[in-house]
Design brief:
CATH class: Alpha Beta
Oligomer: single chain
Largest sheet: 5 strands, mixed
Number of helices: 5
Strand order of the largest sheet: 1-2-3-4-5
Distance between the termini: 23 Å
CATH architecture: 2-Layer Sandwich
Mean pLDDT: 77
Strand content: 25-35%
Length: 137
């Protein structure tokens, strides 16, 4: 489970970004984002995605919130399992980065935006997080 969790998390962000970039009508897809900031584009699509939450992403994870704060693109998951499987290690962060499509990593790097995953254990107030600073993307 420890090796699978970073991959599932990274897959969730890829799916999340894929959903957000495909949501909306065809007029929106022809609009070009502000060349100075992809953060504005990500914030807009993040807002659109919130309408679809919660999203079951498999392996006991449900995406419950998504937002940008304090320089991080943050995804909040409710987790059915024990939180001991979640570790914020260099290996977990590297595995997550490898599974995320490079164009999404480039998007985040361009505007100095890290990635943060918050896991909340279902039915408790316990949580753990994995934080990937821009320097590790």
């Amino acid at each position: 489970m420890k090796k699978l969790l970073p991959f599932v998390t990274a897959l969730a962000i890829v799916c999340t970004m894929s959903i957000t970039t495909s949501c909306g009508n065809s007029d929106k897809t022809s609009e070009k984002p502000d060349a100075d900031s992809t953060v504005a584009m990500v914030e807009k699509y993040t807002g659109d995605l919130k309408e679809h939450l919660p999203i079951n992403v498999g392996d006991g994870l449900t995406l419950t919130d998504i937002y940008i704060a304090d320089g991080y693109f943050t995804e909040v998951f409710e987790f059915d399992g024990a939180l001991d499987a979640i570790e914020d290690t260099p290996e977990a962060r590297a595995a997550a980065c490898q599974a995320i499509k490079s164009q999404f990593l480039d998007l985040f790097k361009k505007d100095n935006l890290g990635i943060k995953y918050i896991y909340r254990q279902k039915g408790t107030d316990k949580e753990k997080s994995i934080t990937i600073p821009v320097s590790e993307l």
